[in-house]
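Journal club side-thread
Mid-discussion, someone asked how the predicted structure for our own chain would compare to the paper's figures. Pasting it here so we can look after the session.
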Amino acid sequence: MSPMIDMVFLLLIFFMVTAVFTKDTGVNINRPTAQSAKPLNPNAIFFTIDASGDIKHAGQPYTIAQIPNLIAEINPAKQAPVTIIADRAVPTGLTIQLIDACQLAGLKNIAIAANQK
């Protein structure tokens, strides 16, 4: 009986270690849908824009003016991709401002997240 329990614990540890963990933004976002949507890159820098227009990174609110300094802090090499998770109710102008701030900070790989249809 003891070897059986050992095997169960080993399997449990194996699955816990090899499980893929996703980052939850902690913000309730109603993303738009698209047929060409792909899974999110787990190495990306995530920005969320909720329905009220609040921009957040890692649960902390930021303004458009703060984005270039934030990117310089968290990604000085300017190599990481950026994924913007915007609520479908967010005006396009705000999303464009965030994309522009990321580009002015030197980032080139910027994507907008959508749910797959």
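Post-session note: The longest helix spans residues 2-18.
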